[in-house]
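Put briefly, the fold is written as integer tokens. One such record reads:
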Amino acid sequence: MGESSKETNTYKFKNLVADLKAEAKRFFKQGFNVVAIKYEEDKGGKVCKKPLCDWGKWHTQRQTLEEFESQNWGLADAFAIATDYPNNEGNYLAVIDFDTKGVSEEAKARGRELLAKFPSLEWRKPFRVACI
């Protein structure tokens, strides 16, 4: 790979990380506790989500700006939100996980039918964040 290709890839990566953190901060500013995560494969090849910090206390208390900023965003592939703690307005984030791997076509159709009954969702790419 040529030097200019390396520079371009480094630039793209830095922008992706900056965009990821900016998107995460948008949720933080709404009062949600946000956790930087990294994807890893276990020995069986299954992809697992690994938090990049100790986030247990955010189940019961509000995350500070310093705690948000100090996470290792440079290693993050995505972010998660602690859904069991309310935001600044006392609201909780509800998540619908619609997995379709290894599921029958009938089950997929039923899932799509049920999802249609919920408020519209906005999918933000490339981060796979759903915003109502």
User: Anything to note?
Assistant: The radius of gyration is 17 Å. DSSP finds three helices and five strands in the chain. Helices lie at 3-29, 65-69, 105-115.
